[in-house]
Amino acid sequence: MKLMVKICVAILVVGLVLGVVGHMAGGQLYAYMDDELMPLRWQSWHDDDGWHFGFMDSQYKRWDRWSSNVADHVEAVVEDTMDDVTSHVPFFGGWNFHHDAPNVAHHLPDIGDIGDAELDTHALEFDLAYGNYKIITGSAYTIAGDAADEIECWFEDGCYYIRADSKKLKNKEITIAIPDGTYYDEIKMDVGAAAVKVSKLACDELDMDLGVGSLNIGLLDAQKIDINCGVGDGGFTLAGSREDYTIDAECAMGTLNIDKKPFLTGIAGTSSTGHGAREVDVECGVGVIDLYFEHG
């Protein structure tokens, strides 16, 4: 992703430099019209319909004329483009590789009444771009709260997916429940600009991606934990004791605290600690990660 951004920025800069140099050297905009290459100039004119703006050739022929509300058209294009960018760039909300999923009922039936797809669920995938969330344990998979109908959720191939990328969810309070006592093979959590508080999770592998949001987990029981933090922050209480874990960390300008003590901070590079069977891998950009342990 960083390479793609650098390439796009480089192309933009080169284009701007070439445009400025060309203009200073007397360059001009041309168009191929009526089997002839013609220089164009920006003109304004007035008629019975009011003021207009557009490009004209040297014979003052009107070409690609824009009406006086050109600013409204430009603003609409820019706004649509930014909406598309912010919904697909991890920094603003995460990549969305999901297919178009059905918007199923948000208040699913009791665990005793649901089908095999729900009972066989062994993975979770949360894509939470906007909103304030509490993830708790209950008797079934449910979603409730303000603007809950803006959230898509579905079961597929043993995974329960939740996608919340609508901007209507900004500052909305949402409660998500998962069945109590469930141990998952894998959990993925992508937190864009959301604020998420989780009571407890249990799984083999947990992959967390924090953009500019926050994620706090009251009790995390996992064998392998990957934390990728951009400019957000996270706080996690890990099951067991510190001796159970091997922690590998890499920080750019961020901070990793372990048991309230700085482990890596500032431009600190990489470091490791512990020799336990459980693994924690932390990559911290400019955010802050706090790790605690259930038994100190």
Uncertain residue ranges:
1-5, 31-35, 57-78, 84-114
Task: Kindly state the number of beta strands.
Answer: 20
What is the count of DSSP helices, taking H or I runs of 4+ residues? 3
Distance between the termini: 38 Å
Order of helices and strands: HEEEEHHEEEEEEEEEEEEEEEE
The largest β sheet comes out as:
16 strands, mixed
Would you tell me the structural class of the helices and strands? mainly beta
**Strand portion, in percent?**
over 45%
C-alpha Rg, in Å?
A: 26 Å
Helix content: 10-25%
Shape: globular
The average pLDDT value, as a whole number, equals: 76
Oligomeric state of the chains present here = single chain
Structural summary, described in words:
This protein is mainly β and 296 residues long. The protein contains three helices and 20 strands. The protein has helices spanning 2-24, 70-86, 116-119; strands spanning 29-33, 36-47, 50-57, 62-66, 123-128, 132-138, 142-145, 152-156, 159-164, 173-179, 184-191, 195-210, 214-229, 233-238, 245-251, 255-258, 261-265, 269-273, 278-284, 288-293. The strands form two sheets. The chain has a 16-stranded mixed beta sheet that branches. Strands 1-2-3-4 form a four-stranded antiparallel beta sheet, with no helix packed on it. Strand 8 and strand 9 (159-164) form a beta hairpin. The model is unreliable at 1-5, 31-35, 57-78 and 84-114 (pLDDT under 50).
